[in-house]
Amino acid sequence: MAESNFVDYVKIYCRSGKGGRGSTHMRREKYCPNGGPDGGDGGRGGHIILRGNRNYWTLLHLKYDRHAMAGHGESGSKGRSFGKDGADKIIEVPCGTVVYNAETGEYLCDVTEDGQEVILLKGGRGGQGNWHFKTATRQAPRFAQPGEPMQEMTVIMELKLLADVGLVGFPNAGKSTLLSSISAAKPKIADYPFTTLEPNLGIVSYHGGKSFVMADIPGIIEGASQGKGLGLRFLRHIERNSLLLFMVPADSDDIRKEYEVLLNELRTFNPEMLDKQRVLAVTKSDMLDQELMDEIEPTLPEGIPHVFISSVSGLGISVLKDILWEELNKESNKIEDIVHRPKDVTRLQQELKDMGEDEDIVYEYEEDVDDDDDIDYEYEEEEDWEEK
User: Fold this and answer.
1) CB 160 within 8 A of CB 111
2) What is the pLDDT of residue 161?
3) How far is Cα 99 from Cα 104, in angstroms, rounded to an integer?
4) Which tens digits make up the pLDDT trace of 288-307?
């Protein structure tokens, strides 16, 4: 994967800004010797904000920018002047990005729409100036609030592709060939297993100028949910798909058994995947005649639509499109909100190791000098501020 620009897993350090402290300034003007407190409030610290951007399709731009830090709020000043708010740090992410706490595995947020903004870490509130604390009996408060501290966290960002149809099958089942034949996508095709090492998206045209998005997921093998083969890396991309197209070659020893193995891997990874609508395509059917198709058809799994196709000869492709479009537009097949489960910490550490993201990200920064002890109150100490 070193040569690939497809990055769907990054670990970054985020830090919001701290709030500015309130001012303890005392008003001192000509002809107004007892002006009283007029210290302004401190500014708010900057937020860490995630924003969905449809122009991004990978997390590559965050791979080498591992520190996201917002600006600190400025302190208040005299004349009830409020301090300037710290600059927010906006992180552009592709739609379909899910964020987890890297230490606990807790699910934090999800960005699914273009332009959607989610505050990941809030900046600290600015402290109130001393003019807030004046009362009839305390007319010259010589104190103010400090700003709230910043928040910091190391997070994992995980990309789950958004597509209408996801292709599910063993290596060399013909997934990439199908995608290349019915869309403009150009995935790598070869006669050896695991040719596809990263997901590919293609837009499939349909009648009347209509279209839908199809995702080619790298091949699944038995035990993939336990980390075998390409493991868990790409199974998560199937969670976003509205419909799953299972693809089993016609020359398989037992089509039903292969289908059950694939279904079991999805069930083990996330049982909620079984709620998705499924379609079965028997690929490489150009080697079959009608008699063989009639013999195979009774052995296929019951309860799901099936079709014999050949991406090379075009057999059954138009029928497959009709079935997919019909299933996609069923009211019962609308995508519902995905319930993201917290990650198991043990499995999370293995994922980080597999992705090369297991190193600790530490940012050393110099703390701003807290000059609360050196505040210039701008009043004469001998001045009696009490009522005479």
Assistant:
1) no
2) 76
3) 12
4) 888 888 888 888 888 888 89
Q: Helices 317-328 and 175-182: crossing angle, nearest 10°?
A: 90
The pLDDT tens digits of the residues spanning 92-122 come to 999 889 999 988 889 999 998 999 999 999 9
- DSSP state, 58? S
Q: How far apart are the first and last CA of the chain?
A: 80
The answer to whether residues 40 and 19 touch, using CB atoms and an 8 Å cutoff, is no
Instruction: Tell me the average pLDDT of the chain.
Output: 80
Tokens 């997070």 correspond to 155
Determine contact, residues 20/127, Cβ cutoff 8 Å: yes
Question: Hey, what are 174's tokens?
Answer: 């013909």
Question: Does residue 1 have a pLDDT over 60?
Answer: no
Distance of CA 345 to the CA centre of its chain: 18
> Could you give the CA distance from residue 29 to residue 206 in angstroms, rounded to a whole number?
77
CA distances to 35, 99, 107, 240 from 110, in Å = 51, 6, 9, 12
pLDDT, tens only, 334-385:
555 566 767 766 666 666 666 666 666 655 555 554 444 444 433 333 333 3
Tokens of 295: 């013999």
* Euclidean distance between CA atoms 159 and 96, whole angstroms: 6
| Residue 304, token pair as written in the block | 């799901």
Kindly list the strands in the beta sheet with 97-101, ordered across the sheet, starting from the edge strand earlier in the chain: 67-69, 9-15, 152-159, 97-101, 107-111
